[in-house]
């Protein structure tokens, strides 16, 4: 059963949580299923610099001209990241809709 099948289900008890850094995901164990959740959603911010930086997501960086992308050790110079919440990096871009996720999950209300 995928994470989408859990929506509206009550009485589920989390049996275990484990961070899986190589896959950049959180594993959540329930009786009878294991759910994999990404630890970041960089694509959600798309081409909105303000939204990407305001998310304060340690796994996402702003990289012109590609937009909000997952952090990796081999990124070219010139990327921006704000994990401390500097002034001026709050809010969202009203004229640019956020990119949707193709793999909805309960934790992100999809």
UniProtKB/TrEMBL annotation:
One of its GO terms (cellular component) is plasma membrane. It is found in: Membrane. Keywords: Glycoprotein, Membrane. GO terms for biological process: axon guidance; neural crest cell migration; positive regulation of cell migration; semaphorin-plexin signaling pathway. Pfam families: PSI. One of its GO terms (molecular function) is chemorepellent activity. PANTHER family: SEMAPHORIN (PTHR11036), SEMAPHORIN-6C (PTHR11036:SF11). This is Uncharacterized protein. It comes from Patagioenas fasciata monilis.
């Amino acid at each position: 059963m995928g994470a989408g099948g859990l929506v509206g289900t009550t009485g589920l008890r989390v049996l275990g949580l484990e961070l899986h850094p190589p896959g950049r995901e959180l594993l959540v164990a329930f009786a009878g299923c294991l759910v994999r959740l990404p630890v970041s959603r960089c694509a959600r911010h798309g081409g909105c610099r303000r939204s990407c930086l305001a998310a304060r997501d340690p796994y996402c960086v702003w990289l012109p001209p590609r937009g909000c992308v997952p952090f990796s050790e081999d990124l070219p110079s010139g990327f921006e990241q704000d994990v401390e919440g500097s002034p001026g990096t709050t809010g969202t871009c009203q004229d640019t809709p956020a990119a949707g996720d193709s793999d909805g999950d309960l934790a992100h209300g999809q």
